[in-house]
Amino acid sequence: MGSSSLDTELAVLERDHLQLLLDILGKRGYRVVGPTVRDRAVVYDDLASVTDLPVGWTDEQDGGIYRLKRRNDGALFGYAVGPDSWKKFLHPPVVRLWRDKTGGNGFQLVEEDEGVPRFAFIGVRPCELHAIAIQDKVLLNGKYRDPSYEARRQGLFVLALNCGHAGGTCFCASMNTGPKATFGFDLALTEVLEADRHYFVVEIGTELGAEILREVPHKAASQAEKATAEGIVAKTAGQMGRRMYTTGIKDLLYRNYESPHWSDVAKLCLTCGNCTMVCPTCFCTTVEDVTDLAGEHAERWRKWDSCFTMDFSYIHGGSVRASPMARYRQWMTHKLATWIDQFGTSGCVGCGRCITWCPVAIDITEEVNAIRRSERGS
Ligand code: SF4
Ligand code: SF4
To answer: Which of 28, 46, 129, 306 could staple 276 via S-S, CB 3.0–4.6 A?
Structure first.
């Protein structure tokens, strides 16, 4: 999204006025969704009030580990990403594609005409903006447009959040996807907590963002406030929990298709598919047809699938990727190599979710390192 005609000056929004911004979005007809705490995790769900945000919470993340901890302040966005990503709204896990409405007398197909809401996403992290852009490429701007995704993506309002806290498994700095939002937002905030003041430095990304900000009390940011916001993002960039060396990564993986290392990781991998479910860029689906026992109703549903299931690569006679080794290799090689040939970008934005939510703590950054080491024979 270009910003050349926009006010490029940064603004300041006091914490107490954030509620007003959410109210304005609600009055304009948006379904306002964002981070909230449920089942001891930060998940994305409907927000009625600023108090629904994870106020005063932070997270501790490592391979196979996630826990929330209390902060000693009232930060609203003082944590990294949780198990949810925005794809649950734009590319939902389960969608009915059509149903038969004849009740057993013949067959008349009714395409699903979902009344989808206009979403306002609150607190979208920079890596997640990149993930949405990747799904746009695949589901919106590719050869085959997905009408369900398009309906949900249209009219989306994005309030992005520059990161002031890097999770233990984050590596956006390695992937050039964060910790500062550079595109794809209407407004982008940096949260600032001082001893006696709590405010946001706001960057305007679109005319719509500017229009909404005009309805909320705000002022131009001072040099000191701008410098404080820049300092927060710079500090976060230096706190990444993980690092991935990406130089020559595509050729590295292509060269190592037959590496014995894949068998080592396959001994651990449960092929549970958690990594694909939590990944904000994974988009694969399967289709299921269901009928009732009387044969009067038929429906077709689309559901998230995973390259870790046996059925995913089933063609007549069996699965192409029958072993865990073949499935793990497929997933990681697709993310970091073949995706680049297919879509002109990496399939990984460095959010760290697949590391945190892998039950046996398999770590994509460490797997790249291990393959590099195996080439050197060390
Ligand atoms: S890498 Fe981890 S999360 Fe992914 S399928 Fe294997 S065990 Fe499950
Ligand atoms: S592969 Fe892992 S780190 Fe990369 S975007 Fe997917 S979940 Fe995030």
So the answer is: 306
